[in-house]
Amino acid sequence: MLKIKRFNQKVTKDVILNWSVILLAVTGILQDSMVFNQCGILIDILKWILLIQNALVFLLQFAEIFTFNNVIKTVTLSLLVMYTCVRTSNYSFLLVCMFLVIAKSITIQEFIKYSLNILKAGIVLHVILWVLNLVLNFGYPVYMGDNDYRISFLFTHPNIAAIKFGWGIIMYIWLMWEKLALKDLVKSFVLIILVYIATKSDSCLIVLFFLIFTGLRKYRNIKKYIIFASKWCFPILGILNIYIASVFMKGTFLSGVLQKINLVFNQRIAMAYLAIHDNGMTLIGQYISMLHNWDDVFHFGNYTIDSLFIYLYVCIGFIYFVLFSIGFYMLAKYKDYKAALVVITFSLYALIENHCLYLTNCFAILLLKCVIFKEKKIK
């Protein structure tokens, strides 16, 4: 009887966790949708259900897999994130933290499988709705702007659509890795090029980088260099990002060069500079107003913080930049080429997108569970 009871408890915990992953993916689609993000109350309810489910999984698995060291690490991380949530008035980070804490009970493979199925359904639905809107005119914009003709496929922004497609491709490659064929890479290349033509999002170029080095995965030297680069790419790119933003308006030769590069990258460097100039930096989190004054120098209005690095520096806290850097350094010790390539891809995304912080868009941070719980391999 005791064995049956334990078996039932295990199944119950796993079922709840699987549904949490599905619910997380569904919530991500809804809040990033131009069609469904009006359902704010529904999205909030789903997030509360997620928090309750995750707390239940945490309790069910506590005695089963948690050692004293794991308890100390997870409690410390949870308290840190909760404190940051209070300081920033943004509780979305809590979901990321809770999944890291309970993720020992689920493999990366399983998380990606459930997430990808929901993502594919969401993308197909939005593409169909976009086509119907093009033909029947439901009142949604066909293009994001009248001048550049960027298509968002009824997601909230073309860059959001690009990150959905892009990380969908990366998740597909991850699942197919062991039996990946040339035709899979070719199809992925064609799809991301079409997405780039439609969205004109720079992030598509990063996915092309991922696909190229996926194709080179059988070369031993390439594997060695990519794993080594994954140790340092996140901290180096982050430090470079903050340095570029800080010297952007110094009036030097370098700042002049950066101001020309800034135009190529859609004012991202200028927005990073203004974010630091207006808000300063924080160690553990601070509230950032979404309203900003019009700027006479750069000639644009309310700017956004596109870079995840800048977002960490001025909003969530520099401490998370340090923790991510240490985590990715330790992850490289697994000598897993696939994971190392994802870390580099994530680090490149962090230069231009803060949306890659959330597990609904990008699973890279979930890899750190292997470091937190000292798992034997990445699976």
Task: Describe the model.
It is a single chain. By secondary structure, the chain is mainly α. Helix content is 69%, strand content 0%. It contains 15 helices and no strands. The protein has helices spanning 2-31, 40-65, 68-88, 92-102, 108-136, 158-176, 182-199, 203-215, 220-246, 253-264, 268-279, 308-316, 318-331, 337-352, 369-372. Helix 11 (268-279) runs parallel beside helix 12 (308-316). The radius of gyration is 21 Å and the shape is globular. The chain starts with a helix and ends in a 7-residue tail after the last helix. The model is unreliable at 1-11 (pLDDT under 50).
Features:
disordered N terminus; mainly alpha; 15 helices
Topology of helices and strands:
Blueprint: H1 2-31, H2 40-65, H3 68-88, H4 92-102, H5 108-136, H6 158-176, H7 182-199, H8 203-215, H9 220-246, H10 253-264, H11 268-279, H12 308-316, H13 318-331, H14 337-352, H15 369-372
Helix pairs in contact: 1-2, 1-5, 2-4, 3-4, 5-6, 6-7, 6-8, 7-8, 8-14, 9-11, 9-13, 9-14, 11-12, 12-13
